[in-house]
Write a structure and sequence with these properties.
It is a single chain. By secondary structure, the chain is an alpha/beta fold. The protein has one domain: Rossmann fold, CATH 3.40.50. Helix content is 44%, strand content 15%. It has helices at 11-22, 34-44, 56-66, 89-117, 137-156, 186-197, and strands spanning 2-6, 26-30, 47-48, 71-74, 120-124, 162-168, 207-210. Strands 3-2-1-4-5-6-7 form a 7-stranded parallel β-sheet, sandwiched between helices. Helix 1 packs across helix 6, helix 3 (56-66) packs parallel to helix 4 and helix 4 runs parallel beside helix 5 (137-156). The N and C termini lie far apart (37 Å).
């Protein structure tokens, strides 16, 4: 099975690539960071295809080069400082483009391939896409992703394509800091992804919410 990971260069994407390869999947790795992708491809025996997921033409080329696709993990996402007067407004545009448009572009470009293979679409959102965080643009983008996952599920209904939304709580990944003493790891979330993918074709796990045991909200 061909397992395409959009947002594969580090964190949850890289951990999922390793576990997918260990499970016997052929992994196709996409992200902007070519050096990290090449290193991960060497480690997993996968294919690295550097891609800016906010450029739809590049996403289309990614899908063309991947060929058959059985699983798509739409995992691209970046953080942003809390507070609507914080951070750089131009950087905020990149956050919205990556976190929202990047997921949309991945779904749109892979839809035909998924219908053909009766494949599986997995999307990374966040607990922050279920409850608003004070002053958080990141949280707002994840609300959009949560809604997009359900919209995609309905759109694919009847085609044999499964759709799973992964909503992690506090995860120790690059670019995010948490005060909790023991957070989730990227490997914890990767196991949740692989659990959903491993179900038989008639079982569609639509959402998995994963929190550290000590997280209170």
């Amino acid at each position: 099975m061909v397992f395409l990971i959009a947002g594969a260069s580090s964190g949850i994407g890289a951990a999922t690539a390793r576990q997918a390869a260990d499970a016997g999947h052929q992994v196709v790795l996409a992200a902007r960071s070519a050096d990290k992708l090449e290193a991960l491809a060497s480690e997993t025996g996968g294919r690295a295809i550097p891609t800016d997921l906010t450029d739809y033409g590049q996403v289309e080329r990614l899908v063309e080069q991947a060929g058959r696709i059985d699983v798509v993990f739409a995992n691209a996402g970046v953080g942003f400082p809390r507070g609507f007067t914080e951070g750089d407004p131009e950087e905020a545009k990149r956050v919205v483009l990556t976190n929202v448009y990047g997921i949309y572009a991945t779904i749109r470009a892979t839809a035909s391939a998924l219908r053909e293979s009766k494949g599986h679409l997995v999307i990374t959102s966040s607990i922050a896409g279920r409850r608003a965080l004070k002053g958080s643009l990141y949280s707002a983008t994840k609300f959009a992703v949560t809604g997009m996952a359900e919209a995609a599920r309905q759109d694919f209904n009847g085609t044999g394509v499964r759709t799973t939304l992964i909503s992690p709580g506090m995860v120790e990944t690059p670019g995010f800091r948490h005060d909790l003493e023991e957070t989730l790891t990227a490997e914890d979330i990767a196991r949740a992804v692989m659990f959903a993918v491993a179900q038989p074709p008639h079982v569609d796990i639509n959402e998995i919410m994963v929190r550290p045991t000590a997280q209170d909200s």
